[in-house]
Amino acid sequence: MEHAQVIGVGASRHGRVLDVLHSPLYAGAYVYGRRTRADTLFLVKNHGSGRTRRVKQEEWPIVLLDNHPGYITWDQFRCNRSNSPITRIP
Predict the structure, then answer these.
(1) Which residues pair with 73 in a beta bridge?
(2) Are 65 and 71 in contact (CB under 8 A)?
(3) DSSP label at residue 17
(4) Are 53 and 39 contacting, i.e. CB atoms less than 8 angstroms apart?
(5) Would you say 34 and 60 are in contact if contact means Cβ atoms under 8 Å apart?
(6) H or E stretch including 64?
(7) Which of 9, 50, 52, 73 is the most exposed place for a label (fewest CB within 10 A)?
(8) Torsion angle, alpha carbons of 69, 73, 78, 82, to 10
(9) Integer angstrom CA distances of residue 37 from 19, 54, 61, 65, 84
(10) Whether pTM exceeds 0.85
(11) Of the ranges 1-5, 54-58, 63-67, 69-73, which is most confident?
(12) Strands 30-32 and 62-64
């Protein structure tokens, strides 16, 4: 017999809500290339690490819409990114 897993639901935190509003995953899309390495400076101590920068949405190299069921639509996602007064995502 299978046992159902109980998931607790509590108050939403501000950061989690922003994650939902600004992540293409929540809109049912698979996206590759949202970030890219920028002027990589490799430090001896942290070999392999470097700085990354966000890429403008229009420049994402791979966007697969309707890859999986989303919580919000792609149009809602795009609206959230462009109209939100609290976001500074390019």
Answers:
(1) none
(2) no
(3) H
(4) no
(5) yes
(6) strand 62-64
(7) 9
(8) -130
(9) 22, 9, 14, 25, 26
(10) no
(11) 63-67
(12) antiparallel
> How crowded is residue 20: how many other Cβ atoms within 10 Å of its Cβ?
15
Determine the distance from the C-alpha atom of residue 29 to the mean position of all C-alpha atoms in its chain, rounded to a whole number: 10
DSSP labels, 24-52: GGGGT-EEE-SEEE-S----STTTT---E
Measured between alpha carbons, how far is 52 from 28 in angstroms, rounded to an integer?
Answer: 24
Per-residue pLDDT tens for 8-63? Answer: 666 667 777 777 777 899 899 999 998 887 655 555 455 555 677 888 888 999 99
Closest C-alpha to 27, from 82, 2, 56, 64: 64
